[in-house]
Amino acid sequence: MTSTVPALGTRTAEGSALQAVLLDMDGTLVDTEGFWWDVEAEVFASLGHTLDESWRHVVVGGPMTRSAGFLIEATGADITLGELTVLLNDGFEDRIDRALPLMPGAGRLLAELYEYEIPTALVSASHRRIIDRVLASLGAHHFRLTVAGDEVPRTKPHPDPYLAAAAGLGADPARCAVIEDTATGVAAAEAAGCHVVAVPSVAPITPALRRTVVTSLEEVDLTFLHGLMTEMR
């Protein structure tokens, strides 16, 4: 395979270099944002409640404690946060065991990052038990590090997960490219000081300083990411 991708550590005249790529999971690499909503709707239906479709934009991309807590409050369901978390994780695991579709371009991008030995981390608000299931399909070898939502003091939209991933890879957050699909994830990455590529899955995301919006991962490759670090300095 031939490529014009700069070697890792190659610096531009301005002194910029891509040191690491940090990727969200649900809705970014795997087409599972709809799975979570379907499971939430099924669980609450079993409790005698119907979820309002407008709530989908509230819960997307957030940590389970926030999403589940919101739905309990909104519906008035007679269930504890701990009980609901177990039901949601169980239901989601059942869904991904049956099917786990990748987002367009995800497999190719992961293979390219791995081939060129770009330090790569998976950074998700999902719990460790879910991440490990998904890694079986994504290929754990593609990631030098994974960060789960239940392994950091504060998960997205706080910067903690991305700061932990950058530190674990020995990278400067300002030289990390983050790929996210939700406003919650984008907020976390930007608060950590990273460059962001947003690939909206459910709700629109607008371009901003240090934030580039694309329609699909098929638009993203190493040449794109190296160029992004130079253009957004």
TrEMBL record:
InterPro entries: HAD-like_sf, HAD-SF_hydro_IA, HAD_sf, PGP-like_dom2. Pfam families: Hydrolase. This is HAD family phosphatase.
